[in-house]
Design goal:
By secondary structure, the protein is an alpha+beta fold. The chain has four helices and five strands. The protein folds into two domains: about 70 residues; about 60 residues, no CATH class.
Length: about 130
């Protein structure tokens, strides 16, 4: 294995469809690595940033998994909603969130509690059509 592939990370823009595990396996195969692993799991129906550790860097994943994460979402509303009502709904999704890994998962399928500390409305576009 080349030295530059023995240590390092690649950041993949995972498309909808494959599991995070499948994407990590593809990276491992394409780069002819002994090990490759992802940080966190993106649902197969979700696209987004998927950090993948290469080779010996997989040992750093437990430390990386404890860091806070930030997500940005785009949503389409099918009706007119004023900003205050929308912000009130966003507040309902803060706090403890209960999750169970999907059936196809490399981790134990046990209930996990994650915390959403803040949801912020960054921008709003009004459809004039």
């Amino acid at each position: 294995m080349d030295l530059y592939l023995k240590y390092g990370f690649v950041v993949i823009d995972k498309p909808r469809g494959p599991t995070s595990h499948e994407v990590a396996a593809w990276v491992k195969k394409m780069l002819n690595l002994d090990k490759a692993g992802h940080s966190g799991t993106l649902d197969p129906r979700v696209s987004g940033v998927l950090p993948i550790a290469l080779g010996e860097s997989t040992k750093a994943m437990p430390a990386i998994n404890t860091l806070d994460k930030e997500y940005i979402m785009v949503m389409k509303l099918h009706g007119d909603v004023d900003d205050e009502k929308l912000k009130a709904v966003l507040r309902e999704f803060t706090g403890a969130i209960y999750q169970r890994p999907p059936l196809r998962s490399a981790v134990k399928r046990q209930l996990r509690i994650k915390h959403v500390y803040e949801l912020e409305l960054l921008e709003r576009m009004v459809n004039t059509h």
